[in-house]
Amino acid sequence: MRLRDDDRAQSVQIGAVLLFAMLVVAFSSYQAFVVPNQNRAVEFNHNQDIRDQMQDLRNELVSIHGETATRSVTLALGTRYPARLVAVNPGPASGTIRTSGTADSGANLTIANATASGETGDFWNGTGRRYDTGFLVYQPSYNVYGQAPETAYENTVLSNRFADESLAATGQTMIDGKRISLVTINGSLSRTQAGSTSLDLEPVSTSTTTVAVSNDSSNVTLSAATQLSESEWDALLADQRDENGGHVLDYEVQTIVDARYDRLSVTLEPNVSYRLRMTKVGVGSQVTAEDEAYLTDAAGNATRLETGDTTTVTLELRDAYNNPVTDGQINASAESGTLSPDQVATDENGQATFTYDSTGVAGGQWVDLRFSAVTEPATSFDGTTPRNVTMRVYVESEPSRSPPAGSGAYNVTWLDPSDQTGIDCPNGVDNPCTLDFSQTSEATLSMATDPIVDGGAVQYATNDTQVGTVSASGTTNAVGENSTTLTPVNNGGVTVYTSSGGGGDRLSLEIINRATLVYNDDAVTNDGPDTDSVAGGVNFSVTNGFGESVTITDVRIAPANSAITTLSDDVFPNDEPLASEVYVAADLSDAHVDYGGGTGVPRTVDLDTDGQSNDGNAQLSDGATATFYLYEFTDGTSSVDMSGEDVEITVTYQPASGGTETKTFTITPTDGSGGGGGGSSAPSATITSATYSAGSSPPSDRYDVTVDVSDVDGDLDRVEYEFVDSSGTVVDTATDNGVSGSSDTSTEQLVARTNERDSSYTIRVTVYDSASNTGSDQTVVPGSG
Fold it and tell me: What's the CA gap between 567 and 630, in Å, rounded?
């Protein structure tokens, strides 16, 4: 029997083949489309992460001023893809961090037309100063994400370089008002890998030193290599333009043929004193050290001492970045008297101190002291060159403690100063007194005449200006008295002299606790620009007596009244003294913290991390004053009038030499009668330097004067200068209308021309705020007449 044909089993086979084919197509599609898309997302996310890490790198670079320890930043140069059971991944994506332009002399940063006063002016004399630098570039090497940008650091700016343009990812800190902060890159680096790497940043040359530079006849200019367009710099420099309250007059980006970068040129406003701070950072290998560039006087110039006494003078050896050079050798010689030792090696601060002995020197004369940085080969002394310095001391006769019999003169005596806070004279004014700097940053010393003399000229001096300085002259009032202000400089003993009409007296003081922050007992209330008229804001200041610069990191605010629960400024913007909960105005760097909706008190405010908005810690140089603004105290609903309210303040700070210190004090604000950002507190002025130079055509005496001014109300207006000869004739004046805010620095030159020259002068400065309140300072300086 024959069976029929049957092919039913073939459908199963065909179905299996079709199913397998579908699986192959599906897997192929997964491998071809899904895997790349997922890997592209991995690479994209990595690119966002590395941009954040590059921003951390940029932040470390722009904040490295004054740091001595190497900083490290971790960068994840590449990434790995997630493991897959069947599909195949490409090899891990890698990336490269490299320097660019550091070996190219054309990629430099140049400062031109910048002049400084005094011995520093031998180096900063207007000549263009060139500093080699370059870029730090991260270059990704992804397998899928083909349009990823390079991320690069240049001139304090981080940018993302796409195929057709570069876009800034951060702001710039190179120019900020009157502050110029420059960071250069040195070394050679090229590192490629898929994992993470640690990039070390070595501070080759750095400090917190700032140098005042300006130019009356030409514009200070900055020039730097850039890969950003002029339109990008338009945005970066917009708030620094002169029409917006800044000092940038013009800028342009010029194309450099056959170069990988263009050239940015910035022109600054003339007749403005800028504070220049510079740092050189090394990365990778081939990092080069900086040699000494110039020698300058640091302390003791124009000191007065009696015949047979000794005093010390200090010099500082610096490199081209204005930073100290350690272990440099300094030679010394004196016109008369003796200097010892005759050669000193500079310390870790770049300083060398010598002792001058006036034994055998006749009184009533200025003595030149000459110093030179040792060079190979040796050169002869030339006071006009950067590595040579001339300082002067005045040797005077000791003032008589009583007038000669029958001379018609009068007795001069010091009055007891121990009724002032921080001054103690346990055995009377004729025995040593003590001034505790932790309680007061200055002392008012008063003298009296017997019999009473009205309108008598009074002179003051100290035997050691490195321990204390005084305002140099005055005139007795109707009761025969006059006062001078003693400003402690360092711990130690100092003798303060007063003389008038042939009589004189001396007062011995021991300065203690100079190394601290000092509350100036000046807290006042003020009504900020909120909607009410209650003075709920508080302004106060502290002076840095630590002997070196400090960084203020934290402020604890603790009102004694438990009903005061909140600190809230209640206004915008968030980066101004009266429109932030906490603002610290300091000479090197300000700080602000603004909280959205305010913050509860008591509270410890971390200046560089707290709040909705902040801009880092405050930095304060030695002897400078920082003003604190707290706005405004409330009961949770309304502002509280802070007049008479006790608030405990704890300031945490870090000295430049290392460590952490705290200063706790209680403020009790008085009624400042301020509203809407104004107040009636008087400003203060301190002459920080008066540097002599001789004009030759025609002959003249010139003094470059630098003054630090401050005002707790934040409304500085102008500084007026007078140059007065020994007869009381004003031979020159100047006015600086460029000061503003709560603290600033003013620099002007005063000149006595040929027929006006004298043997000595008094420099008087008066600072005004917008309410015409005033503060003043004066000093006596030598002349050539």
Answer: 8
Q: What is the pLDDT of residues 282-334, one digit of tens each?
A: 999 999 999 999 999 988 888 888 888 899 999 999 999 999 999 999 999 99
- Of 269, 430, 296, residue with least CA distance to 350: 296
Residue 55: CA count within 13 A, CB half-sphere: 11
- The residues with which 495 forms a beta bridge, in sequence order, are 508
Sign of CA dihedral 234, 239, 242, 243: positive
Confidence band of 119 (pLDDT split at 50, 70, 90): confident
Helix (H) or strand (E) holding 76, with range, is strand 71-76
The mean predicted confidence, pLDDT, of the chain is: 86
Between the two ends of the chain, the Cα-to-Cα distance in Å is 148
- Ramachandran bin of 547, using left for φ above 0, alpha for ψ from -120 to 50, beta for the remaining angles: left
> Tell me: domain 302-396, CATH 2.30.30.50, correct?
no
Is the pLDDT at 26 greater than 70, yes or no?
no
Token digits for 724? 């007065």
Q: Locate CATH 2.60.40.10 in the chain.
A: 302-396, 411-512, 684-782
For residue 575, pLDDT beyond 80: no
Other Cβ atoms within 10 Å of 754 Cβ, number: 11
Token couple for 155:
């001139």
The closest of 175, 203, 66, 247 to 621, measured between CA atoms, is 66
Residues in Cβ contact with 131 at an 8 Å cutoff, skipping those fewer than 6 apart? 108, 109, 110, 111, 182, 184, 278, 280, 320, 321
Q: Round to whole Å and give the CA distance between 607 and 584.
A: 9
Cα separations (Å) of 662 from 91, 440, 554, 557? Answer: 54, 17, 9, 13
Measure the CA–CA gap between 483 and 471, rounded to whole angstroms. Answer: 9
Q: How many residues does the chain have?
A: 785
Residue 131 tokens read as: 């500093």
Torsion sign across C-alpha atoms 395, 397, 401, 407: negative
Closest CA to 711 of 668, 673, 744, 758: 744
Tokens of residue 216, six digits: 């009356």
In the DSSP assignment, the letter for residue 386 is T
H/E run at residue 52: helix 35-62
29 pLDDT band (50/70/90 cuts)?
A: low
Kindly report the CATH class assigned to 684-782.
Answer: mainly beta
Tens-place pLDDT, residues 583-637: 998 888 889 998 877 888 999 898 988 888 888 899 998 878 899 999 999 998 8
Q: Is 93 exposed, middle or buried (0-12, 13-18, 19+ CB in 10 A)?
A: buried
The contacts of residue 775 (CB under 8 Å, 6+ apart) are: 682, 683, 684, 685, 709, 766, 767
| Closest listed residue to residue 456, CA positions, set 436, 480, 479, 472 | 480
550 within 8 A of 653, measured Cβ to Cβ: yes
In this prediction the pTM is 0.61
Q: Which CATH class is domain 517-667?
A: mainly beta
Report whether pLDDT(678) > 50.
no
Beta strand pairing status for 433-436 and 503-512?
A: parallel
With beta carbons less than 8 A apart as the criterion, state whether 589 and 616 touch.
yes
Nearest residue to 371 (alpha-carbon basis) of 400, 335, 396: 335
Contact between 349 and 316 (Cβ < 8 Å): yes
Residue 760, strand partner residues: 782
* Gyration radius of the chain over CA positions: 33
Q: Does domain 411-512 have CATH number 3.40.50.10350?
A: no
